[in-house]
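Exercise 4. Each item below gives a protein and its sequence. For each, produce the structure-token representation.

Item: Manganese transport protein MntH (Alysiella crassa).
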Amino acid sequence: MPQQSSRRNALLGAAFLMATSAIGPGFLTQTATFTQKLAASFGFVILLSILLDIGAQLNIWRIIAVSEKRAQDIANEVFPYAGYFLALLIVMGGLAFNIGNVGGAGMGLNLLMGITPETGAIISGAIAIGIFLFREAGKVMDKFAQIMGFVMIALTVYVAFQANPPMGEAVARTFVPEQLDAVAIVTLVGGTVGGYITFAGAHRLLDAGIKGKDALPEVSRSSVTAILVVSVMRVVLFLAVLGVVSQGVALDKTNPAATPFQHIAGTWGLMIFGVVIWAASITSVIGAAYTSVSFISGFSPSIERNKNAWIIAFIVISTAVLATIGKPAKVLIFVGTLNGFILPIALGLILLAAHKSKIVGDYKHPVWLTVFGTIVAVSMAVLSVHVMIQNIPKLFG
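Answer:
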């Protein structure tokens, strides 16, 4: 019985680790911005992105589980050195975005306590480090992610209810949109399962010993649960913002996601948003550090033995850069653009691995998952090239 309980907790913990890694400062900003731009039609974008997210994540989690190998080791078996290249992209993207995550946590404590964002970032970094000082850091991380996930969703549900969004229109436009935005769709998919995010839960399940063909039904459920948790938060925030913008309220350009909270409850609303963005940011800090290190730990027995120390170092570096330099805009733009390539590259390698018996044994990957995954990989690759071309002037201008 205790083993079953521990297994259930690990499955739920992996789902929430992935979900809370996705729900960061960028997630909040993107959701608010696209809601203002597309209004109720953004519901359709969310629905379509959920389907694409599930298609991408099911492929990745199932192949990692059935092969019983981390993504970088799978990639190295598909093409020589491909795993090292993938690990480099993941670590670069994870470090760059962790700087933004630490900044979001600092902003949250600034709203809550009135301290400077830099001081808030340092305190938040120390709290994240504290989790990895525990002997059972994985279990503590799982529980922390679950608690923060519930807190974020509960507070945002309250604001969405008070915002009184036009539910009839939101439901109607979710299935019959008035306008479409391809960039919004790919941005949401990339922000949910792009970069290191989708691997957070899959690698956590490996570390918890949940792997092999027999575990596939549990892994699939955990994978879909993770996407649904992200989606609940996305939908609730969408409704909160829609309720406010439908009343003619303009979002704050510097912090658009804070507007519905402030409009509904004034100063108290900003403090509620402070809790939400802190919870979103601190869990993303933890998820990015854990997953990035999981991509290099297999390359050296020393790193594997001292994994928690490396995770702590990753958080220290992210916090130090934010506190001393701030958010280096050009670096974030460059690595952010590279991050868009990670999903199609990683998913493409996983799809090739799914049909190699030396990696998956006698497992037969469903054809519909292969087709679905290919659609996601190709569409993300095309748009990433487009975004990269657009960002070249910003990098060298």
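Check: Residues 2-396 form a domain with the Amino acid/polyamine transporter I fold (CATH 1.20.1740.10).
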